[in-house]
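Pipeline run #58 for the internal structure catalog. This entry was flagged by the ingest filter as a single-chain record with no existing model, so it goes straight to prediction. Upstream metadata was stripped on purpose; only the residue string is passed forward. Reviewer on rotation: M.T. Logging verbosity set to normal.
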Amino acid sequence: MANILVWLIRNLPAIFNAYSTLLIIYALMSWLPNARTSGLGRFIARLVEPYLNFFHRFIPPVGMVSFSVLFALLFLRLVEYGTRVILVFLFNLLV
């Protein structure tokens, strides 16, 4: 059990960073014509849109700018920090 927790503690930042990178790429694709309709764009959209739809419901766009990606990134960092604290606490209980 301790080995699994150590692996999670070590690899958690990489997992969250990869998803954050996908969120940023998805946001940047909105500036490029037809980027979201490409194969890569549709693949990233399938991974990112279910998470972003939660924020789209509560954060309306201001003019032509949507801040939902920004809040999604901030919330993702909070979840990463909370998960890390819980995993370190569990590891300390086992050791």
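catalog note: The chain has three helices and no strands.
catalog note: The CA atoms of residues 11 and 49 lie 24 Å apart.
status: ready for reviewer M.T.
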